[in-house]
Amino acid sequence: MKRLAAALPLALALALLSAPAAALEPPANDETAIKQTALDYIEGWYEGNAERMERALHPDLAKRAVFPNPATGRDRFDHMSAMSLVQGTRSGFGKRTPKDKQQKDVTILDRFGSTASVKIVAADWIDYLHVAKINGRWLIVNVLWELKPKVDDKSK
Questions:
Q1: How many other β-carbons are positioned within 10 Å of the β-carbon of residue 24?
Q2: d(CA 14, CA 5)
Q3: pLDDT tens column, 77-92
């Protein structure tokens, strides 16, 4: 099991390196490339397209969330790796969101040099991405996210 856990990041890195050269060439405009990376992430999720999701992520990605637990009064800190996010995408969890509910509003909050902060408002959550330009490609290295409050369906 330890060998498998150690081999997964290497396999992800090799997959990124073996992608066709045309797919690795960044668009001329960094703002466009940053937005495209964010869209590959969120649209890849909704489409169940693991290759598109994987293309957007750095292999050492950390995706995190804090969930309050009113019953205990203690917060729970959850962590997801790039590989688990790709596997969840491949499993089609994002396809459960109906097309008309697939919100994917991308806003570049800030950019300095080879780093950027991006906000994605999705169907049920909000993601804050840290994106870095690594070897000419914009990749998501960190995600901090939180669920949106549930909307009361009685008002419909």
A1: 14
A2: 15
A3: 999 999 999 999 999 9
- Contact by Cβ (8 Å): 134, 58: yes
Which tokens go with 131? Answer: 């994106």
- Identify the CATH assignment for 2-19+28-148 out of 3.10.450.50, 3.40.50.300, 3.20.20.80, 3.30.450.20: 3.10.450.50
The C-alpha atoms of residue 113 and residue 26 are separated, in whole angstroms, by 15
pLDDT > 70? residue 152? no
Q: Using 50, 70 and 90 to split pLDDT, how confident is the model at 35?
A: very high
Q: State the Cα torsion 85-89-90-96 to the nearest 10°.
A: 150
Q: Pick the more confident residue, 143 or 8.
A: 143
Give this prediction's pTM. Answer: 0.77
Q: DSSP label at 42?
A: H
